[in-house]
Design brief:
Blueprint (H helix, E strand, L loop, with lengths): L7 E3 L2 H6 L15 E7 L2 E11 L4 E7 L2 E6 L4 E3 L14 H9 L1 H19 L17
Antiparallel strand pairs: 1-2, 2-3, 3-5, 3-6, 4-5
InterPro entries: TenpN-like (IPR049929)
Protein name: Toxin-antitoxin system, toxin component, MazF family
Length: 139
């Protein structure tokens, strides 16, 4: 995915139906979340764009009042089959797209850094500070 422009997709209804019991997956039927894909260790991570991010485990693009828009690493899901992605790319706000595209390599590094933090947090999941460091992982 390096050297290409950043691309966004939607997760399909098949994906949401298969994982409907997972409460951590973001789902809005009338306004789906666009996701950015990062490949790492033969896994595909789908990171959603959100408009109400208030924590540090993200890449923020646009600030409005007390909240920010951007990619939310804590709501990342692992996609094990490309059939769960929309056939056509998702369209997002142009200002946000330009910032994300310009910084796509930094975003990838930040996501990989978050994965390291997440793996470390898994070792002590009941520790209070680790309770918000999650990724919805599916196989």
């Amino acid at each position: 995915m390096k050297n290409k422009s950043i691309t966004f997709f939607y997760l399909t209804h098949k994906f949401y139906n298969k994982y409907k019991n997972c409460k951590e997956i973001l789902y809005k039927p009338k306004r789906p979340y666009a996701v950015h894909l990062i490949e790492y260790n033969n896994l595909i991570f789908a990171i959603p764009i959100r408009s109400n991010i208030t924590h540090e485990f993200s890449y923020k693009t646009i600030k409005e009042k007390n909240k920010s828009k951007g990619l939310d690493f804590t709501k990342t899901v692992i996609i094990n089959d490309l059939k769960y992605l929309s056939k056509q790319p998702a369209r997002i706000n142009q200002e946000e797209y330009l910032k994300l595209d310009k910084n796509r390599h930094f975003i990838e590094k930040k996501m990989l850094s978050y994965l390291k933090i997440y793996k470390k947090a898994l070792q002590k999941p009941n520790t209070n500070k680790n309770q918000k460091k999650y990724i919805a992982v599916f196989s």
